[in-house]
Amino acid sequence: MRSDDPEDSPVALADDSHDVRPRRAVWPAIVAVALSASVFTVMQGLTYPLLAVLLDRGGVSEGLNGLNAAMMPLGMLLAAPAASPLVRRLGAYRVAVVSLVTVAGCLLAIGAVRHPLPWLPLRLAIGFFLACIFVTTDTWINELAPERLRGRILGLYSALLSVGFAVGPALLTLVGTRGWAPFLLGACCPIAALLPLMLTRGSLPSRGRQEEGMRLRAFLPLAPLLLLCVGAAAFADQGAMSLLPLYALREGLSEDGANLALVTMISGSIALMYPIGWLADRISRPVMLAACALLTAVCAALLPVGVHSPGAFGALVFVWGGAYYAIYTLSLVILGERFYGPALVAGSAAFGALWGVGGMIGPPVIGTSMRLLGPGGFPLTFTLIFLAVAVTLGAAAARSRPRPSSDHLC
């Protein structure tokens, strides 16, 4: 087992001795958790464009529209300090069930009300319980994954989340945005996500009520660089999803070309996760993390060079999407490698909080850069941020290299 630096406490560190489930019982539970999370993300992918279209159709002011959009990230932030106590008091399974049912109910309530003001608390609640769902599924998948396969399992898990998120908008094009159909379809997703968990409940880790919990603020100093990586990955994800098409249009691409660039980037975040996870099971994970940050910076720096060549631009955004999304995946892998039990729950909650912060900061920062510097502000912002992340990770790895018992970063 690799040791952490400098937090080598038995409360925080994980090893295979804490997994008492028979190996054969682990695999159905792993499949169930991954399937449940991916089905749930279909609802996310459907909900974002659905509500945006309805708000625009209703002539809602830009201020109220922006406030509505901010409610879900705010709910995720509010959930971060509450998730660990909830898991401790109710147990992870009950938290997941209550959260899935509540999200379905909130979405149906939005469909019934159809007015932007009551949507505010409903979207806040969706964000809160959405975060609770991912705290439980991220914790479960990490506790279930055998150490020697952790990178590959988390790579597939992350890829499935991206697939689910991409399927949502595609389904919306089939059912449309009018009437009850999109809301009923969206509400069916979290309910359907319950089924795999119910079928494998006995095989799921039962961390929770029997253990003393760890508060969010107690975890924060244990892995600052991992949290930095999660925030940077969220910054990139939300910024690129929002503004890559605009960058492509400003550089002279057609609307079809701009949309194709976004699809290609998402495809990279799906296709490259398993290969990167496979590598993470064979070489140093901290080195992989630093390499992905550097690759993200390099690809961003090359965007202005390749944007006018369809083949080169497609290859760049494909690799770029995989590289920045892998930063989150590898951070999750390292989290599960080092922490278990209450510390792992608190770490998953902290990841959710940093994802919310990074996601809220990314689009306005990149948008401001493009307003001040033109289209070139888009790649420049990514290049500078991820170059700084890569240098920070590389320096941390270099400091730990003389210590043969530790190749960890945080």
Can you give keywords for this protein?
410 residues; globular; mainly alpha; 14 helices; Growth Hormone, Chain: A
Main beta-sheet strand count, sense and barrel state: none
Q: Work out the number of β strands.
A: 0
Number of H- or I-type helical stretches: 14
CATH class of the largest domain, named: Mainly Alpha
Number of domains: 2
Label the overall shape. Answer: globular
Q: What is the CATH topology of the largest domain?
A: Growth Hormone, Chain: A
Distance between the termini: 16 Å
Secondary structure topology:
Elements: H1 23-57, H2 62-90, H3 92-113, H4 116-144, H5 150-175, H6 181-199, H7 216-219, H8 224-250, H9 255-271, H10 273-280, H11 285-306, H12 310-338, H13 341-373, H14 377-400
Protein architecture, described:
- The protein has helices at residues 23-57, 62-90, 92-113, 116-144, 150-175, 181-199, 216-219, 224-250, 255-271, 273-280, 285-306, 310-338, 341-373, 377-400.
- The model is unreliable at 1-22 and 404-408 (pLDDT under 50).
- The protein is built from 14 helices and no strands.
- Helix 2 packs across helix 4 (116-144) and helix 4 (116-144) packs across helix 13 (341-373).
- The chain is mainly alpha-helical and 410 residues long.
- It has 2 domains: 21-202, Growth Hormone, Chain: A, CATH 1.20.1250; 214-410, Growth Hormone, Chain: A, CATH 1.20.1250.
